[in-house]
Specification:
2 domains; alpha/beta; Aspartate Aminotransferase, domain 2; Aspartate Aminotransferase, domain 1; binds pyridoxal-5'-phosphate; 398 residues; five-stranded mixed beta sheet
């Protein structure tokens, strides 16, 4: 049992933790979480100031180090992911960068899934490489390739699951085992599922990273990121943040806290809408193929059932035809937003080959199955019937 049997959040469900974890009211007794818009803090005495600066006493010093609203967001995410601690950052990319800067040194090596977020690839390929950290990219679900790519210098395995845009599902437990056998850390970018649908730490991952910009906010309002893991690793990341500065603003932390309150409901609704739409698209003769792990025909379906609570809000599909057909489809929709973002209440539609994945070489596009007739939809929270009406406009334009 527990150290503190009185804690009503002990053993609580994700839905409860997402609403209540980490909140401590101030002397004002506020019900909603307070936003502490302050850059610095006042010390009660010179001795206390000295102790805090020396790290001998807890307490706030400066908001690049700690801020009560940001700390609450960190504690809530740590509770949701089942991690010891979390560190919030200015963006999802800042979370990935800060983790790498804190935990890697020149000469270290990373193995990364080929299908990760495009900017992550640029960060690893262009910037980490400049500082002597090399990355080998492997086909996401080729486990032998992951193992072959590991060298004595490998410190980190990095992946996203389900992948973007074709929803490949990676076996987190299997890669966690591989990471352990080679003394590496497994880092999972859990942006697409969020802890409401998938908890990588429970499956053996060492660190979880989020772009809070996406589903954690859920309404497209703020940019932010967070990393979750052991207290020891999070101390290292915090140390980097204090020195380098890509911290989360308290206002953004507050917006994310509001987003989290509906996380479980939203993820269930995104997933239900995506499932209905994936089935509807699958039955349309004008559609060549639908990629969604919720479909029993998807190669990752059984695995997704095991490691996810539901299948998430992102799906993609190939229209019969070429790039022009895909563009005609997209241009014929009237309700969906033509934008590369996802994780919003508003449904988005995009042509990966010429936008989010346009930087890939032809060979890499082929490998990742990003064909010219592929369209990605991140299903929002509008009525599914209205979204289907909109998709029918696309089909009529083919
Ligand atoms: C958007 C995104 C990121 C980057 O996050 P930002 O908040 O935009 O910096 C990283 N990983 C995934 C999977 C994303 O979708």
């Amino acid at each position: 049992m527990t150290d503190n049997p009185e804690d009503p959040l002990d053993q609580a469900d994700i839905a409860t933790l997402a609403i209540r974890a980490g909140h401590r009211r101030t002397h004002e007794g506020e019900h909603g979480e307070a936003i502490f818009t302050t850059s610095s803090y006042v010390f009660p005495s010179a001795a206390e100031a000295a102790a805090r600066f020396a790290g001998d006493a807890p307490g706030n010093v400066y908001s690049r180090y700690t801020n009560p609203t940001v700390r609450l967001f960190q504690e809530r995410i740590a509770a949701l992911e089942g991690g010891e601690a979390a560190v919030a950052t200015a963006s999802g990319m800042a979370a990935i960068l800060s983790t790498c800067m804190a935990l890697l040194s020149a000469g270290d090596h990373l193995v990364c899934a080929r299908s990760v977020f495009g900017t992550t690839t640029v960060l690893f390929n262009k910037y980490l490489r400049k500082f002597g950290v090399d990355t080998t990219f492997v086909d996401t679900t080729d486990y032998a390739a992951w193992e072959r790519a590991i060298t004595p210098a490998t410190r980190v395995l990095f992946l996203e699951t389900p992948s973007n845009p074709i929803c490949e599902v990676v076996d987190i437990a299997r890669l966690a085992e591989l990471a352990r056998a080679h003394n590496c850390l497994l880092i999972v970018d859990n942006c697409f599922c969020t802890p409401a649908l998938q908890q990588p730490l429970a499956l053996g991952a060492d660190l979880v990273i989020h772009s809070a910009t996406k589903y954690l906010d859920g309404q497209g309002r703020c940019v932010g990121g967070v990393v979750v893991g052991s207290a020891e690793h999070m101390d290292e990341v915090t140390g980097f943040l204090r020195s380098a500065g890509p911290t989360m603003s308290p206002f953004n932390a507050w917006v994310f806290l509001k987003g989290l309150e509906t996380l479980r409901l939203r993820m269930d609704a995104h997933s239900a809408g995506a499932m209905t739409i994936a089935e509807w698209l699958s039955a349309r003769p004008a559609i060549e193929k639908v990629y969604y792990a919720g479909l029993p025909s998807h190669p990752g379906h059984a695995l997704a059932r095991r490691q996810q609570r539901a299948f998430g809000g992102v799906l993609s599909f190939q229209v019969k035809g070429d790039r022009d057909a895909a563009w005609r489809f997209i241009d014929a929709t009237r309700l969906m937003s033509l934008t590369a973002n996802l994780g919003d209440a508003k449904t988005t539609i995009v042509h990966p080959a010429t936008t989010t994945h346009s930087r890939l070489s032809e060979q890499d596009k082929q490998r990742a199955q990003i064909t010219d007739n592929l369209i990605r939809v991140a299903v929002g929270l509008e009525a599914t019937a209205d979204l289907i009406t909109d998709l029918q406009r696309g089909i009529d334009a083919l």
